[in-house]
């Protein structure tokens, strides 16, 4: 399985949609993303050089800031690329023989439905190889974390649209969605969480300099707790830093 050669810089196609144009504009000016973009690009380079141990911490860092894969982002300067950090993290683990970690990362990547072409083929073949290795070693295959769609709280079609928009990287759309339009407390609680996560991602991409944006995140988290005091989420869907902020309000 080979690492796809890194592509030269390209600009976002006109038909990419408003959400991608918005994210491109945001990442073009964000000092936080400028640093993350370089770390992401460096991690890919380290994988190409077979320095997998060096790539892993870099990828974990960028994932902790921006967990959702995106079809096209600005890395730095005029260099643009797809952003699929979970794929590369899984690839690094796979090359080191860590199949459990590889499968976990690739399961995360599959959530976002961004990966395509040779990288998607590489992930599929690596996944099959890892599953075979684990079975031959007498180990159980990792069980994917339950998605929000499996927890009984997505009967409302509008909530499913919110979840899909979040995993498609439409953070601006989700950040402005009104959860109070949903029909039951459980769905409203889930929607407030996705709204808070989207607001937090936009806050990070904006350089973490807007105090009001962070206040909006905290407000959405408080609304999630008040909407559904028994709210339970799939923590695998969110970044560690967002989870830390969320845990201050004891959302499980």
Automatic annotation (TrEMBL):
SUPFAM superfamilies: TPR-like. Keywords: Signal. It comes from the Bacteria. Residues 1-34 form the signal peptide. InterPro entries: TPR-like_helical_dom_sf. This is Tetratricopeptide repeat-containing protein. It comes from Pseudomonas indica.
């Amino acid at each position: 399985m080979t690492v796809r050669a890194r592509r030269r810089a390209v600009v976002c196609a006109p038909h990419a949609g408003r959400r991608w144009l918005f994210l491109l504009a945001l990442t073009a000016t964000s000092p936080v993303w400028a640093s993350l973009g370089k770390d992401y690009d460096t991690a890919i380079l380290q994988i190409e050089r077979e320095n997998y141990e060096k790539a892993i911490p870099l990828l974990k860092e960028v994932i902790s800031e921006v967990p959702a894969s995106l079809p096209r982002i600005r890395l730095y300067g005029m260099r643009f690329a797809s952003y699929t950090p979970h794929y590369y993290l899984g690839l690094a683990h796979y090359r080191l023989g860590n199949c459990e970690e590889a499968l976990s990362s690739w399961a995360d990547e599959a959530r976002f439905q961004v990966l395509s072409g040779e990288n998607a083929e590489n992930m599929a073949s690596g996944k099959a190889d890892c599953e075979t290795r684990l079975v031959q070693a007498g180990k159980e295959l990792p069980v994917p974390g339950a998605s929000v769609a499996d927890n009984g709280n997505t009967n409302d079609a509008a909530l499913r649209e919110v979840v899909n928009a979040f995993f498609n990287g439409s953070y601006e759309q989700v950040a402005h969605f009104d959860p109070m339009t949903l029909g039951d407390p459980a769905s409203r609680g889930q929607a407030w969480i996705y709204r808070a996560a989207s607001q937090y991602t936009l806050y990070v991409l904006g350089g973490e300099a807007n105090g009001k944006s962070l206040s909006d995140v905290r407000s959405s988290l408080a609304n999630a707790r008040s909407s559904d005091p028994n709210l339970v989420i799939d923590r695998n869907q969110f970044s560690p830093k967002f989870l830390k902020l969320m845990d201050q309000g004891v959302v499980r």
